[in-house]
Amino acid sequence: MTTYTICVFTENSIGLLNKITIVFTRRRVNIESLTVSETERKGISRFTIVIKEESREKVEKMVRQIRKIVEVLAVFGYLNDEIAFNEIALFKVPTPAGAKRLDIETINKIYKAWVVYWGLDYVVIEKTGSEEDIFDFFNYIKPHGILEFVRSGRVAVSKSAKSLGDYLPEAEWEYYL
Amino acid sequence: MERNEANILTLDGMEPEVRIETNALMNGSHAVIRSLIAEGVDTIFGYPGGAIMPVYDAIYDYQDQISHILVRHEQGAGHAAEGFARLSGKVGVCLVTSGPGATNLVTAVADAIIDSTPLVCVVGQVSKHLLGTDAFQETDVIGVTMPITKWNYQITSADEVPEIMAKAFYIAKSGRPGPVLIDITKNAQTEMMSKPFNYTFCHKLLGYHPRLIPKVDQIQKAADVINQAKKPFLVFGHGIKIAGAEKELLELIEKTGIPCASTLLGLSSVPVNHPLYAGWLGMHGNYSTNRLTNECDVLIGIGLRFDDRVTGDVTRYAKQAKVVHIEIDPAEIDKVVKAEAPVVGDAKEALKMLIPLLNVSAHDEWIAQFKALDAEEEACITVPELAPTTEKIKMAEVIRMLSDKTKGEAVIVADVGQHQMVTARYYEFKRNNSFITSGGLGTMGYALPAAFGAKVGDPSREVVAIIGDGCFQMTLQELGTIAQSGLPVKAIILNNNFLGMVRQWQQLFFEKRYSFVELQNPDFITIAKGFGIAGHTCAHRDNLSDSLDAMLSSDKPYLLEVLVEKEENVFPMVPSGACVSEIRLK
Ligand SMILES: Cc1ncc(C[n+]2csc(CCOP(=O)(O)OP(=O)(O)O)c2C)c(N)n1
C-alpha cells in the first residue's frame, strides 16, 4: 500500500465535503485522515485527504473525478516525498499524587513535545511531527497511562516552488497575506 | 419589451456580461419563471404540490410565453424532459414538488447524468426554518441527488434566484451536459426580492472550465498515430450527436477510408448504408465490429466512454491496438481503456482540427474482412430473422418493416430489453439524431415519456416509441399526458408476455430456470382506449403491413400492439465476462 495525499482546493460552499467524499466511497476507498481549512485566499478552502491505495491509476482516476465537481478549483495528488507534512497530536496523561513524575526535560528536548495545559491531576501534551514521531512519543509516554489521545490528520504543502496562484484562475481575490 | 430582449440575448455565441435589466420587483417564484424565459425555455414538464405551489401560481401569469405540460408521474416529467433535450438540443426543464415529487424524479436524473443529457430540475422544498426538522414532505433532495447531478444547489432566499438559475443552465448545457437540480425553499418562492430582477447570463465559473478546443499537440499526436495505422477502426458514441459533429465524422472517414462503428447512443450519426459504416458495437452489436475490435492496430474512440456493455471483458479489449481517445470529459480518459493519444475537447472542434492533418487513404483489404464477417452474420441471423417461418411475428420483421415504411427517417425511441436491441439492429437509420434510448442506466419505462418529450421538442418529426410489454407497464400512465396534449406520438408494444431480456439470460446462463419473468398482461388496447387513444392489436404476419400503415397514417396518438414470438433470443451476443471477439452468433 502506498500513502497518497490529495489536496483539493475548493470554493467554500455547503455540502462540498459530501460531494468529495462520495468519490472515495463509490470506489470503496477508506479515508485515513481529512483536514479542511480556509487558505490564504478568502472563500477558498483546502482539503487535505490521506488515503492508502495500491493502484496509482485508481488514485489518478479519483483525482480526475474530484476535479469534475463544479466547486472544485484544483486537485493535486502527492506521494510522501513530494510534500512537507505534519500532524498534531494531543495526549492527556494522568499525574496523580505519588505517581512516577513526568520527565519534562526529556519530553521537551528529546521528543519536542510541550505541555499545553496543566490540570489538577493530569496534563495535556502537544506533539507535532510525522506519524512515526507521534507514535514514538506515544510509546514513550504509554507507561504513564494515556487518558485520551487524538491526532489531527495530516496537513501538507507541496515541495514545488509554485504558489497556489500558479494553479488557480486569477480573479479579484482577497488575500490574507 | 424585456421579454423580446431576452429572446434575442439567448442566441448562441452569447457575449460575456449579457444582462437583462428590469426595474420590476417580484417574488422568488416570478423570478424563477422570468429566469426560465430569459434562458429561452418554452416548455416545462411538471407536476404540482404543496412546496412548489407559489411557482405554479406564477406560471399562471406567463402561460402565453411558456407552456407547462402536466405529466402523470414525476418520473415521466424527467424522461419527457430528457427526450425533449435529446431531440431539440435544448435544456429540458422539470418542475416538481418536494419529498415524493422529488424522489419520483430521481430515476430520470440518474438516467440523465449517465447519458449526458442536459436538464434543469426545479424542485420545491419546505421553508428554510423547517429544514432538517422532518417537516411534512421534507426530503434531503440535495443529499439524495448529490452523486447523480452535475451540480445541485439549494436556494433559500429570493435574491439568489437569477444568479443560481443562470449558473444552472450554464452548467447543464456546457461541456459534457448533465442534469442540474435546484432545490428551492418555499420562503424563497414567496418572499420579495430586495432588488429589481436582473438576469446576467453565466458563461464562466471559477473552477469549471470545460475544454472545447483541444490542445494542438494532442491533435498532432493523434494524427500521427492514425496516419501510421494499417488497420484503423473508428468507434464513436453519443458525443458525436451532442457536439453536432456528424458532418465532420463523415468527412474524416471518407478522407481516410477508415471503417467506423457506433455505440448504442451514437446510432444514426452515420447513415447505415454508408460504405464505411460497419455497424454497431457491444453486447448485441454486430459480429464484424466486435470481432475486429480485437484485430485493428489503431482504435479511434470519439465521444464515448467505453462502457462495459461495449468492451466486454476489458482486460481482453483491443489490447493489440493503439488507442486514440477524443473525449470532452477528462475523467473518461484512461478510465476504462488506456489511451496512447488522448485528446480532450469537443468532438466537432477536435475533428475540425484533426481532419486536415490526416492522410488520404483507403483500406480495402481491411474492410473486406468486415464484409466477410458481415456475410456470416447475415446468413446466420439477419436473413432468418427477417424472413421467419415461425407462426408468430418476430420483433425483427416489425422493426425492419417500420424502417422501410418510414424510410429510415423517423425518430425512434426504444425502451429497455430485447426490443431495444432488436430496434438498434434492424432499424436502418438514414437521418441524423434519430435514435433515443436509455443507454447507460437501462431504465425500463423510459420510452413512452421520452418519445412524448421528443415530439414536443420537434413536432415536425415522426416519433415512434418501441416498447416491451414489461416496460410499458412502468410508465403507461403517461398515455394520459399524451392524450391531453393531442400530439401524434406513435407507440408500438412488442408483446412477448415475458420480461424477455431477463428470460433470455435465464435460458442461456441459468439453465432455463424461468424465475418470475412471465407476465400476465392487461388488454393494452382497452387501456389506451380508456385514455382516449386509438389503437389495435396485430397478431398475424399478414396484417403487419396494414397495421403499421394504420398507425403511421393517423394524425393522432396511436398505440399498436404486436403479438410476437414468446421465446426468441437476441443474437449476436457477447456473453457477460467474455471478450468482444468471443461474440456468439447463436
Ligand atoms: C427499472 C428496471 N427494472 C428492471 C430492469 C431489468 N430488466 C432489463 S430488461 C428487462 C425486461 C424487459 O422486458 P420487456 O419490457 O417485456 O421487454 P423485452 O425484453 O421482452 O423486449 C428487465 C426486467 C431494468 N432495466 N430497469
From TrEMBL, chain A:
Query: What UniProt keywords apply to this chain's record, in alphabetical order?
Result: Amino-acid biosynthesis, Branched-chain amino acid biosynthesis, Transferase
Keyword flag Repeat: no
What cellular-component terms does GO give this entry?
cytosol
Q: Extract one GO BP annotation from the record.
A: L-valine biosynthetic process
Which GO molecular function terms does the record list? acetolactate synthase activity; acetolactate synthase regulator activity
Where is the signal peptide, in residue numbers?
A: none
Please verify whether the record's keywords include Amino-acid biosynthesis: yes
SUPFAM superfamilies (alphabetical) = ACT-like (SSF55021)
Residue ranges occupied by any ACT domain in the UniProt entry: 5-80
Q: Name one Pfam family in it.
A: ALS_ss_C
Catalytic activity annotation:
2 pyruvate + H(+) = (2S)-2-acetolactate + CO2
What's its EC? 2.2.1.6
- Which pathway is recorded for this entry? Amino-acid biosynthesis; L-isoleucine biosynthesis; L-isoleucine from 2-oxobutanoate: step 1/4; Amino-acid biosynthesis; L-valine biosynthesis; L-valine from pyruvate: step 1/4
Q: What is the recorded function of this protein according to its Swiss-Prot or TrEMBL entry?
A: Catalyzes the conversion of 2 pyruvate molecules into acetolactate in the first common step of the biosynthetic pathway of the branched-amino acids such as leucine, isoleucine, and valine.
UniProt lists the family membership as follows: Belongs to the acetolactate synthase small subunit family.
Q: How does it assemble?
A: Dimer of large and small chains.
Q: What is this protein called?
A: Acetolactate synthase small subunit
Organism of origin: Arundinibacter roseus
TrEMBL record, chain B:
**What is this enzyme's catalytic activity, as reactions?**
2 pyruvate + H(+) = (2S)-2-acetolactate + CO2
InterPro entries attached to this UniProt entry: Acetolactate_synth_lsu, AHAS_TPP, DHS-like_NAD/FAD-binding_dom, THDP-binding, Thiamin_PyroP_enz_cen_dom, Thiamin_PyroP_enz_TPP-bd_dom, TPP-bd_CS, TPP_enz
Q: Which organism is it from?
A: Arundinibacter roseus
Family under the similarity heading: Belongs to the TPP enzyme family.
Listed A to Z, the keywords are: Amino-acid biosynthesis, Branched-chain amino acid biosynthesis, FAD, Flavoprotein, Magnesium, Metal-binding, Thiamine pyrophosphate, Transferase
What's a BP term from Gene Ontology annotated to this protein? L-valine biosynthetic process
- Give the enzyme's EC designation: 2.2.1.6
Show the PROSITE patterns listed in the entry.
Answer: TPP_ENZYMES
Look up the record and name the cofactor or cofactors this protein needs. Answer: Mg(2+); thiamine diphosphate
Name of the protein this chain belongs to: Acetolactate synthase
Q: How is the cofactor bound?
A: Binds 1 Mg(2+) ion per subunit. Binds 1 thiamine pyrophosphate per subunit.
GO MF annotation: an example:
magnesium ion binding
Q: Identify the GO cellular component terms for this protein.
A: acetolactate synthase complex
What sequence ranges are listed for the domain Thiamine pyrophosphate enzyme central?
Answer: 219-354
Pathway it works in: Amino-acid biosynthesis; L-isoleucine biosynthesis; L-isoleucine from 2-oxobutanoate: step 1/4; Amino-acid biosynthesis; L-valine biosynthesis; L-valine from pyruvate: step 1/4
All residue ranges annotated as the Thiamine pyrophosphate enzyme TPP-binding domain in the record: 415-562
Q: Residue limits of the Thiamine pyrophosphate enzyme N-terminal TPP-binding domain?
A: 26-141
